[in-house]
Amino acid sequence: MFVRNLVSAWRSLSEHWQRAVLSGAGIMIGCVAIILLISIALGVREDVTSQVQDIGINILVVIPGRIEDGTFNPNLGGGSALEEIDSDRLSKVSGVVQTAPWSFIGGGIRLGAKTASSILVATTPAWFEMHPLKFSEGNGLGSSDELKDVCVLGSVAKKALFPASSAVGHSVTINGRPYRVVGVTEDHKSEQSLFSMGSMQNVVYIPYHRLKQVEPTMQTDRIMVLTRPDAEPKRLIRRLEGVLGQRHDRQQFQVLTQEDLLGLVFKITGILTWLLTGLTSIALVVAGVGIMAVMLMSVNERSKEIGVRKTVGARKSDVFWQFLIEAIILCVAAATVGLLFSTAVCAALKAYTPIRPHITTGTVALSFGVSTGLGAFFGLLPALHAAGKDPVQALRNE
Fold this sequence. Notes:
The chain has 398 residues and is of the alpha+beta class. The chain has helices spanning 2-15, 17-53, 84-91, 126-130, 155-161, 188-191, 208-214, 233-245, 258-301, 303-311, 316-352, 361-378, 380-387, 391-397, and strands at 59-63, 67-68, 71-72, 96-105, 109-111, 114-116, 119-123, 135-138, 150-153, 171-174, 177-185, 203-207, 222-227, 254-256.
């Protein structure tokens, strides 16, 4: 019986395919919007995760403020009470292998008329021992470079300043001061990232102690802490915060793990994703109402068909299921077309833009689940209306 109703529903949609296409267009557009939004959000999340993990698995980050209740302390982008002595004290804590202070430098880097929008960081040679960087040219800062005007370029800056030549041995200008390039980091994957301009591959490193000679008032913005693999993170963080608490107020610092760094990003992207998905779902509801209106008109137009079917023995349930299945087939077919179109758009975005959408099984299931539910919900009233028609009255109206 179900198969017969399915065949009847499919035959009816095929006979009126123009109307079916126009009715399903709204559902298709809504599904495309939802799939693309969720896929792009998942791609961004994976991208951010990759960038954070690029810092290093066993590295903790000390910041000059606290992240509480999902909000940033304003000090994170401004003044810092951290000092190099804090880095030295933390390096002596049990479970810590090494530490490295970071100072963010304002300004830019240039080579003649060429400029690069890079993140400028002053750090010690210890960072290059802590962090497994790959080099396309030269190497990282060594102990002999601590008091020299040298720098290590990120692969993004190298591409902007030295697109077709070697950078090592040449001088670049950072805030009006010449620095000799001793190394270039390499990571082609990150260069193609949506966040490549803010990634580890767009960092230009200069010696911390040399900058401190030039700018004695330079502040320390971060302290990177390399931990032993067997150190229990929560217990170690308590010890680190205890040491920092001997010199600073608790609101002036916090020790973060990668999970902490990603937690806030995931929370923000999650809220934005569901907000945009909710707004986009309005289009699906409007499309569902359109399908219901078209199906109600179809019921009136097909009064003779309904009357004939009931006259030859069709039950109310047969007519009901035929019209309900028509609505469901229409929505599922529209969702299928929407999925195929979304897949093509995602492939194009990956090929021609830094955006990396990620379509998951859950996203596909959500799309088809919502479409099937819409078909069943908005097809219910037309199906009940068709099933309730009196056969004699239906033939007379025709």
